[in-house]
C-alpha cells in the first residue's frame, strides 16, 4: 500500500469537521466551488489536491502550510516522520533525480517553458502551472519536472534530463547537474569506504 496515501488517511481521520471546513476555506482559490461543495472530509479534499497535482509525496509544501494554519503540530510531526522515512526509502536513482531537480530549479530562468515543452509537458499543463504559480519561477520549473517524472515513471533519469537540457541549449545547467551527480557519487563512495578504515 502507498505510504503517502496511508499518511493522508491518517491525517484525515484526525481532523474534526470544523477543521475540514477551515481547510476548505483555505483552499477556495485552488479548488473550484463545485468540488469544494462535494468535500465532506479531509480525504475528499486531499483527493482533489492529488488530482490537481497540488499534492504528492515529493511536494508536501501545501499540506504542511494547511496543517500549520490549523495549528495541528501533532499532524505536522506525522508529516515530518513520513518525509524522513521517504528519504530513507528513496532509491539511489530517486535521490539523484531530486538533487538534479534542485539544481535545475535554481538555475533555469525565464526559458522554463522551452524546457517543459522538451520534456513533453503539454501547453495546457504549462498554462495551468503558470496560473498556479504566477510569481514563483522555481516552482514552475519544479512542477514541470514533477509532471515529466510522473509521466516517464522508470524512464525518468538524470541522463535523460541532461540530454533534454542540452537540446534546449541550457548547457551550463546541464554541466551543473552533471557536476552535482559526480559530487554525490564520490561522496557515496567515500561514505562506503570510511566504515572499514
TrEMBL record:
Keywords: Apoptosis, Cytoplasm, Immunity, Innate immunity, Phosphoprotein. SUPFAM superfamilies: DEATH domain (SSF47986). Residues 97-181 form the Death domain. Gene3D superfamilies: Death Domain, Fas (1.10.533.10). InterPro entries: DEATH-like_dom_sf, Death_dom, DED_dom, FADD, FADD_vert. Residues 3-81 form the DED domain. GO terms for cellular component: CD95 death-inducing signaling complex; cytoplasm. PROSITE patterns: DEATH_DOMAIN, DED. GO terms for biological process: extrinsic apoptotic signaling pathway; innate immune response; positive regulation of adaptive immune response; positive regulation of cytokine production; positive regulation of extrinsic apoptotic signaling pathway; positive regulation of innate immune response. It comes from the Eukaryota. Apoptotic adapter molecule that recruits caspases CASP8 or CASP10 to the activated FAS/CD95 or TNFRSF1A/TNFR-1 receptors. The resulting aggregate called the death-inducing signaling complex (DISC) performs CASP8 proteolytic activation. Active CASP8 initiates the subsequent cascade of caspases mediating apoptosis. Involved in interferon-mediated antiviral immune response, playing a role in the positive regulation of interferon signaling. This is FAS-associated death domain protein. The lineage of its organism: Eukaryota, Metazoa, Chordata, Craniata, Vertebrata.
Amino acid at each position: 500500500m502507498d505510504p503517502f496515501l496511508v499518511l493522508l488517511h491518517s491525517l484525515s481521520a484526525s481532523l474534526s469537521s470544523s477543521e475540514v471546513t477551515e481547510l476548505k476555506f483555505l483552499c477556495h482559490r485552488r479548488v473550484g466551488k463545485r468540488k469544494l461543495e462535494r468535500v465532506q472530509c479531509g480525504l475528499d479534499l486531499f483527493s482533489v489536491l492529488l488530482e490537481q497535482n497540488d499534492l504528492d509525496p515529493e511536494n508536501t509544501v501545501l499540506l504542511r502550510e494547511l496543517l500549520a494554519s490549523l495549528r495541528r503540530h501533532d499532524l505536522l510531526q506525522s508529516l515530518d516522520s513520513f518525509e524522513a522515512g521517504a528519504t530513507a526509502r528513496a532509491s539511489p536513482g530517486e535521490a539523484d533525480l531530486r538533487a538534479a531537480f534542485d539544481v535545475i530549479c535554481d538555475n533555469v530562468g525565464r526559458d522554463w517553458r522551452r524546457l517543459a515543452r522538451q520534456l513533453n509537458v503539454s501547453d495546457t499543463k504549462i498554462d495551468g502551472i503558470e496560473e498556479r504559480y504566477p510569481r514563483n519561477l522555481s516552482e514552475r520549473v519544479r512542477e514541470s519536472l514533477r509532471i515529466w517524472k510522473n509521466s516517464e515513471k522508470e524512464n525518468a533519469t538524470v541522463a535523460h534530463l541532461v540530454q533534454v537540457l542540452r537540446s534546449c541549449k541550457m548547457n551550463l545547467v546541464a554541466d551543473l547537474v552533471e557536476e552535482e551527480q559526480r559530487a554525490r557519487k564520490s561522496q557515496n563512495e567515500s561514505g562506503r569506504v570510511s566504515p572499514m578504515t
